[in-house]
Amino acid sequence: MESDSTRIESLKLRAQELDKRDELAPFRDRFYVPPNTIYLDGNSLGLLSKPAEQAVMRVLEQWKCHAVDGWNVSQPPWFFLAEELGGWVAPLIGAAPDEAIVTNSTSVNLHQLIATLFRPDDRRCKILIDAQTFPSDCYVLASQLRLHGLDPATHLVRLRSNAHGLLDEDEIVAAMDSSIALIVLPAVVYTTGQLLDMRRLALEARDRGIVIGFDCSHSVGVVPHAFSEWGVDFAFWCSYKYLNGGPGAAGGLYLNRRHFGRSAGLAGWFGSRKDRQFDMAADIVAEEHAGAMQIGTPNILSMAPLLGSLPMILEAGIEAIRTKSLELTGILVELFDDCLGELGFELVNPRDENRRGGHIALKHEKAIQICFALRAQGIIPDFRPPDIVRLGPSPLYTRFIDCLEAIISLRQIVKERSYTHFPVERALVS
To answer: Is the pTM for the entire model greater than 0.90?
Structure first.
């Protein structure tokens, strides 16, 4: 990079200036950032925050001191914790508090929503997805189709991306024919980082009488949503990426109030109305809001970190988080142009910030080896097969200088081919 030293020095000065005026910079001190590490995998697993750690310790103390009475005397009471956390998530997704609930895992929530809302008939009997849909979502949808006696090979319609690897909303709308009963799409495509126009897609689906929902695992906590305003039918997400809820943290779901009163496809006692739950009656008296989508007893210890992380996110403000996220990914795109454009990389994600989620995606034929080489230098990226390096800055703890140093290291690794001695097999967890 010697010939580019002046340009790099200029970029460093700019990154340092951005860090100085970053209003979210103080939040970094609330996280446990691994020493000597540049962590760019917040879109896979967010870091532990001190408020989340303290919240877990409080819940453990409640368990220790109150035992079974913790369900009622803890603050907030465990019995209502799913609803409490749902109310905290609601502003992040543009929902009323009773339209959101924190419960189950991502895949279980999708099972529940499909079992509840997918009602095929002789005419409308297909589910539309995109070909890049996260595999677990595909498994869920295929299994739900089989439960209705339908063949996923013909009833799960997979819309392919265009020549640039991106989804075209015009093609999605064109695929909304009279055979489609339900649509599941990502808010942000997990591979490319493309942000879909959910407002338009929800409007087009509703005009055609199609139920539509979004997997928000790569958008909640980093991209603002307005689900109730847009008329989205349902959404679901995990809590361990930008919500920083920890590995295996409880997921969440959104149910538009026009679907309140539907019988849950997968019923369980925590979907009961709270004042009737302990009647122990043979027939359930279902809750009258999104809480009806709960199934079994909530995993309080997997929800506890969110008692610390969600108030911190709300304090920062989702609009401010989105602004910094776009600045972070924006500088990464600029650095790609300056440093990586001639080294065999292809920028996969959209350049238009209005169509970009919280991470960037770089395609390279040696992507897995490059990721290993970055990790050896203390830079934690993410790999997605077959050839994508994902860089996921998290606005609450990633600095602009981190992005610059990561790209400089990436350029050096590829220019010097220092990745060649790393394995081509991917690790169990990337």
So the answer is: yes
Nearest by Cα to 242 from 41, 394, 50? 394
CA 396 to chain centroid: 16
Count of C-beta atoms within a 10 Å radius of residue 142: 17
In Å, how far are 111, 125, 157 from 154, measured between CA atoms?
20, 10, 7
Of 326, 324, 336, 394, which is closest to residue 361 (Cα–Cα)? 336
Tens of pLDDT along the chain (430 residues) come to: 445 677 778 888 889 999 999 999 999 999 999 999 999 999 999 999 999 999 999 999 999 999 999 999 999 999 999 999 999 999 999 999 999 999 999 999 999 999 999 999 999 999 999 998 999 999 999 999 999 999 999 999 999 988 778 999 999 999 999 999 999 999 999 999 999 999 999 999 999 999 999 999 999 999 999 999 999 999 999 999 999 999 999 999 999 999 999 999 999 999 999 999 999 899 999 999 999 999 999 999 999 999 999 999 999 999 999 999 999 999 999 999 988 978 999 999 999 999 999 999 999 999 999 999 999 999 999 999 999 999 999 999 999 999 999 999 999 999 999 989 898 876 545 5
| 40/206 Cα distance (integer angstroms) | 37
The rounded Cα 297 to chain-centroid distance in angstroms is 24
C-beta atoms surrounding 397 within 10 Å? 22
Long-range CB contacts (< 8 A, 24+ apart) of 91-94?
91/314, 91/318, 92/220, 92/221, 92/224, 92/225, 92/313, 92/314, 92/318, 93/216, 93/220, 93/225, 93/227, 93/235, 93/254, 94/224, 94/225, 94/226, 94/227, 94/228, 94/229, 94/230
Whether the CB-CB separation of 59 and 85 falls below 8 Å is answered with: no
Give bridge partners of residue 253 from the DSSP assignment.
Answer: 101, 236
